[in-house]
Amino acid sequence: MGEMIEKGKINPRQFSILTLLFSLGSTILIVPSALTSIAKQDGWIAAVAGVAGGMAVIFLYSMLGSRYPDQSLMQYTEAILGRWLGKVACALFLSYFFILSALVLRNVGDFITTIVMPETPIQVVHALFLLAAVMGVSLGLEVIARSSEIFLPWIAVLIIVLIVFLIPQIQLDRIQPMFETGVKGIIHGSLSVLSIPYMELVVLLMVYPYVTKPKKIRSAFMKGGLLGGVIVIVVTILCVFVLGWDFTARHTFPSYTLAKKIQVGEFLQRIEVLVAIIWFLTIFFKLALCFYASILGMAQLFRLRTYRPLLVPSSIVLGVLSIVVYPNIVYFRVFAAEIWPFYSLTFGLFMPLLLLTVSALKPKPPADGSSAEPKEKIH
Q1: 3-state secondary structure the chain
Q2: What residue spans define the domains of the chain?
Q3: How high is the pLDDT of residue 335?
Q4: For 187-199, how does the pLDDT look when each residue is reduced to its tens digit (9 = 90+)?
Q5: Which residues in the chain land under pLDDT 70?
Q6: In the list 106, 192, 196, 374, which could disulfide-bond 34, CB 3.0-4.6 Å?
């Protein structure tokens, strides 16, 4: 283990917090819109179905990760599929991590330039946010995990405040008629929760070998994913009950608009900045983890001793990619609803399933030599 590129270790609790923040990342802001545009007022049922499916996906990841406790996704993909096929699969995974990082960064840019500061060039927003992520990644996994522990209580308080103050605004008749879109609409809608964030959690298989107490990783992973899912369901329910499904479906960032509805007497208004803060904090961790997985994976693929030299060039490429990844916010809505779920299914479900199946059919390596191979590889 000493030969590993990443020297840091995180505990299962920190892993759980990172999973939670990752699953809230872009999800709370963009998913309610995608859900309701497909499943209409049954968007919240689609969210529940999506979270249930998401838990199964996390279970699949933890089965794969626990088969190779000392190796990251890059290392055992090569071990399972053989050298050349493994390298191709690794390169595909890396492209997915990198495109995901670019999309997450673009989400931030779009949000700030359409809602918060419309006059600011999107490149400036991206550069500032990237700078923070690069600093985080250069300090390593342990620092990212510890800072997530510091921010968690603040994020929790802000989410609770948001939910409590919106309860008086709920209009229950907005839920009817139930099951109008039928099972097909609900399943189609649930795909948007499955693809953002659950299928994207495959990124965390790069972090898996650095978590202490391997026996507790699965429950930590499931706990973080479930908590994130519950918050997404609650936010979707609030969007449907307070704004109505049609309004939610029309807006790109409905949960931000949702917070504008909060009014307590004459003194507590314009509280939507809370949602912006929750979102900036959670999406920072999502971006940091995606970018970290990309460059750690690159370093492992090319057998480098450290990922540090890759930081600056990769961040420049990422900055450019985030501008060209989709032309405008209108296109993004189609992309998030129609294209991304199937792209995510490829890397978030089919590839991990393939790896698990092949590794189950292969004879298990001997216990004493199991971790000797990756040491060789990194040297």
Answers
A1: CCCCCCCCCECHHHHHHHHHHHHHCCHHHHHHHHHHHHHHHHHHHHHHHHHHHHHHHHHHHHHHHHHCCCCCHHHHHHHHHCHHHHHHHHHHHHHHHHHHHHHHHHHHHHHHHHHHCCCCCHHHHHHHHHHHHHHHHHHCHHHHHHHHHHHHHHHHHHHHHHHHHHHHHCCHHHHCCCCCCHHHHHHHHHHHHHHCCHHHHHHHHHCHHHECCHHHHHHHHHHHHHHHHHHHHHHHHHHHHHHCHHHHHHCCCHHHHHHHCCCECCCECCCCHHHHHHHHHHHHHHHHHHHHHHHHHHHHHCCCCCCHHHHHHHHHHHHHHHHHCCCCHHHHHHHHHHHHHHHHHHHHHHHHHHHHHHHHHCCCCCCCCCCHHHHHHHC
A2: 12-348
A3: 85
A4: 988 998 999 999 9
A5: 1-4, 364-379
A6: 192
